[in-house]
TrEMBL record:
<dbReference type="GO" id="GO:0006123">
    <property type="term" value="P:mitochondrial electron transport, cytochrome c to oxygen"/>
</dbReference>
<feature type="transmembrane region" description="Helical">
    <location>
        <begin position="111"/>
        <end position="129"/>
    </location>
</feature>
<keyword id="KW-0812">Transmembrane</keyword>
<dbReference type="GO" id="GO:0045277">
    <property type="term" value="C:respiratory chain complex IV"/>
</dbReference>
<keyword id="KW-0999">Mitochondrion inner membrane</keyword>
<dbReference type="InterPro" id="IPR004203">
    <property type="entry name" value="Cyt_c_oxidase_su4_fam"/>
</dbReference>
<comment type="subunit">
    <text>Component of the cytochrome c oxidase (complex IV, CIV), a multisubunit enzyme composed of 14 subunits.</text>
</comment>
<dbReference type="GO" id="GO:0005743">
    <property type="term" value="C:mitochondrial inner membrane"/>
</dbReference>
<dbReference type="InterPro" id="IPR013288">
    <property type="entry name" value="Cyt_c_oxidase_su4"/>
</dbReference>
<protein>
    <recommendedName>
        <fullName>Cytochrome c oxidase subunit 4</fullName>
    </recommendedName>
</protein>
<dbReference type="InterPro" id="IPR036639">
    <property type="entry name" value="Cyt_c_oxidase_su4_sf"/>
</dbReference>
<comment type="function">
    <text>Component of the cytochrome c oxidase, the last enzyme in the mitochondrial electron transport chain which drives oxidative phosphorylation.</text>
</comment>
<comment type="similarity">
    <text>Belongs to the cytochrome c oxidase IV family.</text>
</comment>
<keyword id="KW-1133">Transmembrane helix</keyword>
<comment type="pathway">
    <text>Energy metabolism; oxidative phosphorylation.</text>
</comment>
<keyword id="KW-0496">Mitochondrion</keyword>
<keyword id="KW-0472">Membrane</keyword>
Amino acid sequence: MLGIGKTSGCPVPARKGRRERLCALKLTAASAPSTHSKEKMPPYTNYHAQRSYPMPDEPFCTELNAEQRALKEKEKGSWTQLSHDEKVALYRLQFHETFAEMNRRSNEWKTVMGCVFFFFGFTALMIWWQRIYVFPQKPITLTDEWKAQQLQRILDMKGNPVQGLASRWDYEKKEWKK
């Protein structure tokens, strides 16, 4: 039960189904580019210069204006007739950067270190704020007074007199043994 579609030569089932819709999509997709205006795309440039391979496959500037074209024509003659500025302009048409510009260090590290120190400072500020306003007060058992009373209690009870704290305490002089 295959029939021929009205818009294309695709075989389709007698009833309108999936295959006819796909053929219609193919036809629409094939005719879509012709409905748009034909704009010239810029040419693909494979310009990539780096320190290890400083000679790229293509020049940096591929589309030249009238002044640059005239300079390129002048380049074909004697280079002694070219001024220093014209030689620099020709160099800039061929290459994006000089070796000195390629080897120049960037100042990106300053931004990175600034961000790192900013986040350290922000983190310290958050910790300080939490200690003041969020965390509860220290328990009474962590105060110096409580620790001193606890030590005195252990010494008064003479706990572990052979090898413990009581063995290092002089009970007659009320001080630590030397």
